[in-house]
Amino acid sequence: MSNYHIKHLEEYFQVYRKSVQDPKRFWEEIAEEHFVWKKKWNEVLSWDFEKPEIKWFDGAQLNITENCLDRHLPSRGNKTAILFEPNDPSGGAQHITYRELHERVCRFANVLKNQGIGKGDRVCIYLPMIPELAFSLLACARIGAIHSVVFAGFSATALSTRINDCDAKMVITSDGSYRGAKTIDLKGIVDEALQDCPGVQSVLVAKRINTDIHMEAGRDHWLQPLLEEAYADCAAEIMEAEDPLFILYTSGSTGKPKGMLHTTAGYMIYTAYTFKNVFQYREEDIYWCSADIGWITGHSYIVYGPLANGATTVMFEGVPSYPDFGRFWEVVEKHKVTQFYTAPTAIRALAKESLDLVERHDLSSLKILGTVGEPINEEAWHWYNDHIGNKQCPIVDTWWQTETGGMLISPIPFSTPTKPTYATLPLPGVQPVLMDEHGKILKGNQTDGRLCIQFPWPSIARTIWGNHQRYKETYFSAFPGMYFTGDGALRDEVGYYRITGRVDDVIIVSGHNLGTAPIEDAINEHPAVAESAIVGFPHDIKGNALYGFVILKENGEDRDRDNLKKEINQMITDHIGPIAKLDKIQFVPGLPKTRSGKIMRRILRKIASNELGNLGDTSTLLNPEVVDQIIEERQ
Ligand code: WT7
User: Ranges for the AMP-binding enzyme C-terminal domain (predicted)?
Assistant: First the structure.
């Protein structure tokens, strides 16, 4: 029996049992057999979910880039590590071999050092999906700097908040980016953000779109000439197992984003292990995850997981709609992609387009399909299965989070029979439980509740940067002794899990995790707005869309409503980014509140979703009369 590569259902159950009965032994064997270490650990795991404190492989020393790069050089030096497909389909793909990637990462690491970056320093990365993005993560990891990637669709304000929260000394960006037929002035956004970031000492700028941009003397440097001058060799910094690898921000229930901190050894082992099993990865495969490296999916399953396995990972700069809605399938055909991993929102958008865009491409190279980011509905699942997988490719519906670092619940293809809309079974080492509202564990099958995990897995985030108390309150306080995911789930008659959605103030829009609080904070900054409440409502492509209920101040009452709506969405775009824009805005005289002054979002959610039949008891509200008024003027 191999712990590392599960090949059938019986084996899954055996491996799973072992991983639960003796987790330390289970992960220790994997760590010993499949990774390179400078020094072995003293203890596989120590943990306390009350504190909370979690340590995996304490005492071990390693560098993740040696596991992702150096060790592959003898056997895979000429194999493509990163297959870059540019925005422009005629732009020519780049095949970057493991040897080339190693050299570029080393040069980049030397550039960072020459700029005064060292172990433990934070480097903010704000780049489009170009190879330099992958190089920059690995270059940071090479020298022990902590990377914090900010998705390049976030606004200047969102960027500066994140830079300041982690005290980044450096920003890596590009002159601009391509997005379908458009270009975006990324450097302009960085310049604006840096007006509020006194701690940033230098900015490295990759040339991508060749625009004439402002370069601040003494602060900004073109990246490419520095890379050319730098040494092509750079010894990997020796890192402790629990040294930070990266910070990645996710939204939460207050306005401030949470900087989830991931550490080195556990993250490496878990992402590599899950990549291998969930994609049944084999040496000759061409694997493509269409996410952006600005999200955790890209960190774990474009960069670290695939490279730790010596895989070929496709990096796609473009969008699914350019030059037409057949682009994904064109890329699959062109590179003979074997595993394709995307988000339900993309599947729903593509399923609306003509089937001819799919059928004109040869998709026979595909073996496994994956989804992530939000629940997949039955219709989208079948379309993906029938038209993309030709009913031959198992679909892995992978449930996980920024906080979990890697997939926790997912089928293992060719082992776990799939079931539409179900993430199915926990991966080895993962111990999910469902809890009722009173904190009781729900035993047995055919039940539903709040999804918690009762035992640590190697890639769980260790803290929120600079705010351990918030980490404890958010994840370990609702159900003491457990990690609380924020999701609801049901368990069917055979023990399969189906994620039903968030049970907190997070809304998943097009697979993006958005907190209501930061959006409300942005709206409330508008001079005519007194108060607001955001809820989600079902949307056939985005999964959920946002509905804003807004109370105006007296000075706003006479203003043109359509202009106000535009200004409100502009506020959101400026503070967060276009992904958080509202689909519907309704101006209301008041918001339904409890006697203690809490907004009753449950009622607003029902109104926004047009479920008016079943609003529940509104008589205990402070202001029941506003409910009827809101219903009357529903958008
Ligand atoms: C939230 C985490 C995991 C990387 C991308 C999102 C939702 C994620 C699924 C799935 C149903 C899912 C959950 C989760 N989610 N995957 N397969 N089925 N829901 O990471 O931005 O941290 O969001 O996404 O609600 O809590 P994230």
Answer: 519-598
